[in-house]
């Protein structure tokens, strides 16, 4: 299934290795910072090689009733095994996962997108409630 006229692809992260996994409590306290983690390959490992890797994850929050989301973070993963000796020779690989702290006074939806250099943009979302 693809959204935004085919720009973004989505799926069940338990069955598709490209889908970002958003981890945060379902209900957060109003105005209290909460940690959100987002990553790739929680259930099925995604390749992390010079030729095939996740290079970026972006995380947004869309409060209920707002027209546009707020960007919470943009994370680049730049070590994919390459060195002066060639592809996959360094043994250094960035793991595509990140954490961000944020707070909100309104419920809404967290939206994550990830970019695979071979298979394009993938997205996922998670609703959060506020008490």
Describe the protein.
With 131 residues, the chain is mostly beta strands. The protein has a single domain (2-130), classed as SOR catalytic domain (Immunoglobulin-like), CATH 2.60.40.730. Helices cover 0% and strands 44% of the residues. The chain is built from no helices and ten strands. It has strands at 2-3, 8-9, 21-23, 27-28, 34-39, 54-63, 70-76, 97-102, 108-116, 120-130. Strands 1, 2, 4, 6, 7, 9 and 10 form a seven-stranded mixed sheet that branches. It is elongated, with a radius of gyration of 16 Å.
Domain unit count: 1
Radius of gyration over all CA atoms, rounded = 16 Å
How many β-strands, per DSSP?
Answer: 10
* Global geometry: elongated
What is the correct CATH architecture?
Sandwich
CATH superfamily: SOR catalytic domain
Largest sheet, if any? 7 strands, mixed
Identify low-pLDDT runs.
none
Number of helices: 0
SSE order, as H and E? EEEEEEEEEE
Distance between the termini: 33 Å
* CATH-defined topology: Immunoglobulin-like
Strand content: 35-45%
Entry summary:
With 131 residues, the protein is an all-beta fold. The chain is built from no helices and ten strands. The chain has a single domain (2-130), classed as Sandwich (Immunoglobulin-like).
Notable characteristics:
131 residues; mainly beta; Immunoglobulin-like; three-stranded antiparallel sheet
């Amino acid at each position: 299934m693809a959204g935004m006229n085919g720009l973004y692809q989505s799926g069940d992260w338990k069955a598709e290795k490209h889908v970002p996994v958003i981890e945060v409590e379902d209900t957060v306290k109003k105005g209290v910072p909460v940690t959100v983690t987002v990553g790739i390959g929680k259930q099925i490992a995604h390749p992390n090689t010079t030729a095939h890797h996740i290079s970026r994850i972006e995380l947004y929050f869309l409060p209920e009733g707002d027209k546009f989301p707020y960007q919470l973070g943009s994370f680049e993963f730049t070590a994919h095994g390459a060195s002066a000796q060639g592809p996959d020779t360094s043994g250094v690989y960035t793991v595509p996962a990140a954490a961000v702290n944020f707070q909100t006074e309104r419920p809404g939806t967290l939206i994550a997108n990830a970019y695979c250099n071979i298979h394009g943009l993938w997205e996922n979302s998670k609703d959060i409630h506020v008490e």
